């Protein structure tokens, strides 16, 4: 009975044009270019230790556009991007999935930035 009620409610919500978030992940860590698997995993570990739900692709060198599409399709509100130049500079790119607004943030300030940003985005 629960499943049927849930399915009917879900259908009505979609008919109204409201997007249903299909993931509890708050941040998708993506890589731009080759050779950034370790930095992606390190960022995920940092976010997990801080209580932020994060995930990354299991592929060694996933396509950047595919990763962004994954975030949009699953309703993940924030994408954190890292490439070779960002690793060298000690920064990451933080992108709001809904607005596509992107900000460059020093890696050491990432957790504080996300803790401030996520509560406002997850209400959307």
From TrEMBL:
Keyword Manganese: no
GO molecular function: ATP binding; histidine-tRNA ligase activity; RNA binding
GO cellular component: cytosol; mitochondrion
Stored SUPFAM superfamilies: Class II aaRS ABD-related
Organism domain of life: Eukaryota
Domain Anticodon-binding intervals: 27-116
Keywords, comma-separated and alphabetical: ATP-binding, Nucleotide-binding, Protein biosynthesis
Cross-referenced Pfam families: HGTP_anticodon
Gene Ontology terms: biological process: histidyl-tRNA aminoacylation; mitochondrial translation
Classification via InterPro entries: Anticodon-bd, Anticodon-bd_dom_sf
PANTHER family per the UniProt record, alphabetical: HISTIDINE--TRNA LIGASE, HISTIDYL-TRNA SYNTHETASE
The protein's name: Histidine--tRNA ligase-like
Organism in which the protein naturally occurs: Hyalella azteca
GN (gene name): LOC108676206
